[in-house]
């Protein structure tokens, strides 16, 4: 519901924003209409000026012909001036006439272009008035009507939603009242249960008071029976002495067990040390065995290599002997000797491979080391066996000691428990003895106090009887109140049933209201979709109007450029006319100084600002190339007037540039 309200408010805000945007567009379009009207007025004025200039052109041609005739007449006169100067003046006049004719043709062309642009502007104005003017657009009026209808429907739906919310709030209020009534019924039930519990407590207190009175009577009789017994003190003293003796004997046995435990701990530490030594010896023996095995492998490898070499040497010796016995030729003997030397070299190489004497010595050392290692290993095995036997004996001793320690611990724990029990009994007996001694010394006082207590007990029994009567009366009142509460509970249950029925009806109404609300929300969504479609159409119309506006601005910009160009041509025309007049005046006697003075004044006027006519020009507007003083331009910028004072074209801060006459 809140989300729907937010959406409706957003749609209303969007509608207001659209209306404001439409008003802005209307105002902007009205401004454009005014600008177009001003442009039309300027074009009309230019047209009238152009007609006047055409008439002036005819008169100018006539004056030119007259001037030419006057110049010819002056040429015929001998005393009018220098012929050379007159010829130059005539040439300048002819050039000026040609330039004026050219400028007139340009002005006529510009007028035709301006007329064409004026017709285009009028066509654009008519098109804008017919199609893009929002206030007269049929599509916009239709959208406005539909938007008003949608707004009315939204208001109706909002009123329906508000009524449904009020009904829902009323149903919730009724449901809350029903819940409060149910809570009141629960509170009444709880009060009834509390009253019943209080009645039970009062009855329990009454029973406890009765039992306390009976116990007091029994205690009084027991105290009376115990007062006549005089032999209990001597028996207690004898029991205390016996307990002290038994306690001393148990302490002695406990000390003995502690000493046995300490000796057992020492034996355990010794056994653990012996086991650690045996493990270290085993590790060392294993290392020596591995080392001896490696050395034996090396010895075996060297022995096998030595055996092979010896066999090869024996074979070679036999071969040499056989050759010496069978060969008698000197050449054969030489060959045999060479072979013998070769074999000897091979034998030496083999001995070198064996390491020579060092190898033989290392082999012997290895054998001796192996024998020593084997002997040391045998000794270590013997020591290991002895240590293992000692370890087994120690383990057996440790096990026996642990068994005896376990038995001693069990016995000591039994002794300790017995000692604790005896101590507890001893303490109880001491307490009982002190109590009995106090009772014996204060027997008379106790008798008096018991008599007083009996009297007090009688009074207490009377008070308890009164309390019992009061409790019974309170119980009766509580039963009456409970009956009233039961009746109240029955009434509340009946009202609760009625309220439950009413709540069921309210829930049905809420469900029906919820269904109506969903239907209203669906309808509102449909209306929102239709409104969005209308907004899309309105945006399309706005875009079309913006396009028309852009085209109109382009045409206006073209018109302003043409107007600027025309203004420049007119300035050139005026300058040429002034030059022509100046040339005419130069022909008059004594007019040279006056013309120079006027020309100087004109140049000074050109240098001064066209707005204030006081300060010199020092800035130029790059958009239209017009020059003014910086103070006037700054004043226009400060006043937010961004139009050129000369031509009215727009310019910005970046279009203002300084220049200097050098």
From TrEMBL:
What UniProt keywords are attached to this protein's entry? Chromatin regulator, Coiled coil, Metal-binding, Nucleus, Transferase, Ubl conjugation pathway, Zinc, Zinc-finger
Coiled coil regions in record? 8-49, 83-110, 233-397, 475-586
The pathway it acts in is: Protein modification; protein ubiquitination
Q: Which reaction does it catalyse?
A: S-ubiquitinyl-[E2 ubiquitin-conjugating enzyme]-L-cysteine + [acceptor protein]-L-lysine = [E2 ubiquitin-conjugating enzyme]-L-cysteine + N(6)-ubiquitinyl-[acceptor protein]-L-lysine
Q: Which SUPFAM superfamilies match?
A: RING/U-box
What Gene Ontology cellular component terms go with this record? Answer: HULC complex; nucleus
What family does the entry list?
Belongs to the BRE1 family.
Q: What name does the UniProt record give this protein?
A: E3 ubiquitin protein ligase
